[in-house]
Amino acid sequence: MDIIVSDSSPVALYEQIKNQIISQIVSKKLLPGQPLPSIRTLAREIKVSIITVKKSYEILENEGYIETVPSKGSFVSAKNTEKMRQLAIYEWECKLEEIVKRAKELDISLDEGMEIFKELYNLSD
């Protein structure tokens, strides 16, 4: 599992971890039933505290993205995959709404914004 966190980001470390795991679930890089690294292992790999990873996993479990089985570990949830996708799209739309507001403040036209979006979209392959 590829997780990269940044201390210089304004987003809390546990949120960075959570968001990246959600992204990997929605993009099907992590499949239903697939095990996640243990909290200790992931904390060691990305050099953060165990408490930080634990908080991320707890939120992911509460939101239905993962399931934790005592003595076995945490797994990508096989339940409600469409619901998870819809939730991820909603979160994406909220972020996009903020970007659109900022673009309007900067007097960026819809055409300019779409061109920027297309360029960034094509670069992410």
UniProtKB/TrEMBL annotation:
SUPFAM superfamilies: Winged helix' DNA-binding domain
Transmembrane segments: none
Top-rank lineage group of the source organism: Bacteria
Keywords of the record: DNA-binding, Transcription, Transcription regulation
InterPro entries hit by this protein: Tscrpt_reg_HTH_GntR, WH-like_DNA-bd_sf, WH_DNA-bd_sf
Matching SMART domains: HTH_GNTR
Residue ranges constituting the HTH gntR-type domain according to the UniProt record: 11-79
PANTHER family: GNTR-FAMILY TRANSCRIPTIONAL REGULATOR, HTH-TYPE TRANSCRIPTIONAL REPRESSOR YTRA
Protein name: HTH-type transcriptional repressor NagR
Species assigned in the record: Terrisporobacter mayombei
Gene transcribed to yield this protein: nagR_3
